[in-house]
Amino acid sequence: MFHYKGEKMAVASANTDLHGYGRAIRLELSRRLPSGRKLRVLDVGSGFGINAAFLARSLPKGSEVWTVDPSPEVLDNAKKSLGADAARLRFREASAHDLGFDEGYFDAVVSVMVLHHVVALQPAIAEMARVLRPGGTLLAVDYKPEASHKLDFKSRHEEKDFFSPEAVARGMAMAGLEAAEEEHGVWYLVEGRKAASARRRRAGRAPSRVASGR
Questions:
Q1: Model-level pTM?
Q2: Can you list the domains of the chain with their CATH numbers?
Q3: Which of 87, 151, 195, 208 has the most Cβ atoms closer than 10 angstroms to its Cβ?
Q4: How far apart are CA 199 and CA 214, in angstroms?
Q5: Dihedral sign computed on CA atoms, order 99, 100, 101, 102
């Protein structure tokens, strides 16, 4: 359920770390990720694997980090480019609209520069919220609509492909999360928190689809 508008494009800049914002984005993520215990965390949209590797290195020892992407080619390339770091991760072919994990399986779900690729915002947010445990955190980072004419992309994007932080926050609220948005120039971060229930439910069994490789 991902889409790319138009043809592939030549990119003027050789910077592949989120247009140079990667370090700042990872700093904001690290401030918001749970700490002090082993965690199950999902990275939605593998890309080059940089974000997934960051999560594996940043989280407490013994944490379980999954990364998903709908493209087998992207997953294979990420495994190759990450080298030894790939052994810390679990890879799965899946889309943001159909993650295939049990409900409440993850302590945190992280989506970095993925939402402008999805066809429909609400199903993607609802699915990410579904696999989040009560009390868990959803962190969504993306570019604002004006990025379409301010930044170089490898695929053609139009302003309408990008969702505003307000729209993402509303989507999280509709999915039952308490959401707060924060803008950082051309990109933003929306943090959603799933309400903790009196009877905490955390999936203890394996994901509903058999994992294929690491």
A1: 0.85
A2: 18-194 (3.40.50.150)
A3: 151
A4: 32
A5: positive
